[in-house]
Amino acid sequence: MSGDKNHDLKGFGSRAVHSGTNHIGDAVNTPIFQSSTYKLTDERYAGWAEGAQHTLLYARLSSVNSDAVAQKLTALEGGEDAEVFASGMAAISTTLMSFLSSGDHIVASPDVYGGTYGLLTEELPRFGIETTMTDMRDPAAYEAAIQPNTKILYIETLTNPVLKVCDIPAMVEIAKRHNLLCIIDNTFASPWACQPLSMGVDLVIHSTTKYLGGHSDIIGGAVVGSKELIAEIFPRKVHFGGSPDPHNCYLLERGMRTLHVRMPVLSNNASILAQRLESHPLIEKVNHPSLHSHEDYEVAKRVMPKGTGMVAFVVKGGDVAALKFMRGLNIIYEATSLGGVESLIECPFNSSHMMIPEEVRHAAGLVPGFVRMSIGIEDVEDLWADIESALSKV
Ligand SMILES: Cc1ncc(COP(=O)(O)O)c(C=O)c1O
Question: Which residue, of 90, 100, 189, 268, has the greatest Cβ tally within 10 A?
Fold first, then answer.
């Protein structure tokens, strides 16, 4: 790789600012190095012969900007290496296809991200790869679902949109005992809130579109882990082709440099709003891992004690009331996606989870009136005023 390593910096914030940044031309950041290809030199030919990972040859393989981002994320997650992708789904599909062949089996949960659910249930079976879906809240159920041909335990730090918290160390222990890869999607937590590699997870995936990018202006993905596992993924990234453009990586790196400043603000905002919502007469139930009432409060204290900006709650009066509330908001926008500096809200029943049958949604806790908010870094009193005012119109 070509950027500054600086992995040894102690502080998370210092690593967010400095690790991986490539000071080309004495720039203080990594400039946008917009080139699809690079002049071939003897050194580059040699790099190619060795497998080409992080050798500047052609931007589908790697680029100055993708290398900078890969190094920064490696430093933030505490890994050895990373690969970056054009989307979170490119990261997930390429990673899974790197370790699975026809006849293999995965254990996952029915409330994984919708795109991942589609990949596991609609695409992978066409290649002879089957998934058993069971409750991520229940490590024993995951263990019971393991078959002789199981290769991967697939988990998410926090489920979407119910915000169940996964007991990562318990899942890791099961994966190790059965000699399986444990792969986690850490998008909803970000490496600021949770570093699953330190708990023994093998590979950490992100949709960098969310907290890492942080400004709702890019689509991207990444996977971090050991050098050995990332070296397995790299050739598949080259073959499947879900590689990011240098400009996209530049924006991602710029976002990552302030991750440690944004996350405490939005996580604190979310905790305050969750508490206030919990005592509002028009709210039936609130899900946020900082609340004592959250079913996974104790697990959350262990695996992601710093919290998250995601809050889910149920408006009394069902979906009609939830829609009315949502459309009465002024500075919290109705939009799908999350993790940006601005607060966003959605009703899963008519957006992210529209394709899931109603009875399955209800069984998963997506009862009528359910809304999901991604809290941003606005002033919390402005957010609360907006919420109170919209609720008063329901
Ligand atoms: C938890 C999670 N993982 C993966 C993805 C997919 O990421 P992308 O939209 O960048 O492909 C998303 C998107 O919303 C997500 O929420």
Answer: 189
Closest CA to 141 of 174, 190, 96: 174
346 lines ligand 1 (CB under 6 A): no
Distance of alpha carbon 374 from its chain centroid, rounded?
A: 13
Q: How many CA atoms lie within 13 A of 164 on its CB side?
A: 19
CATH number of the domain located at residue range(s) 12-256 in this protein? 3.40.640.10
**Distance in angstroms (rounded) separating the CA atoms of residues 125 and 383:** 44
Query: What is the number of other CB atoms lying within 10 angstroms of the CB of residue 276?
Result: 16
**Catalytic residue, candidates 4, 38, 44, 60:** 60
C-alpha of residue 207 to centroid of ligand 1, in Å: 5
Average pLDDT of span 153-171? 96
Beta strands in the chain (DSSP E): 81-85, 105-108, 130-133, 150-156, 181-185, 203-207, 221-225, 283-287, 310-315, 333-334, 344-346, 370-374
Among 76-85, 129-138, 206-215, 357-366, the range scoring the smallest mean pLDDT is 357-366
Residues 385 and 310: their CA atoms lie apart, in Å, by 18
Angle at 262 between CA 350 and CA 244, to 5 degrees: 70
pLDDT band at 211 (very low <50, low <70, confident <90, very high): very high
* Residues carrying CATH 3.90.1150.10, the chain: 259-392
Amino acid found at 102 = S
Helices first, then strands: H and E counts in the chain: 15, 12
For CATH 3.40.640.10, list the domain ranges present in the chain: 12-256
The rounded Å distance from CA 238 to ligand 1 centre is 21
Q: Does an H or E element contain 117, and which?
A: helix 114-118
Atom from ligand 1 closest to the CA of residue 220: 10
Task: Please state, for a pLDDT cut of 70, what percent of the chain lies above it.
Answer: 98
Residue 9 pLDDT grade (very low, low, confident, very high; cuts 50, 70, 90):
confident
Decide: 219 in ligand 1 pocket, CB within 6 A.
yes
Residue 42: per-residue pLDDT = 87
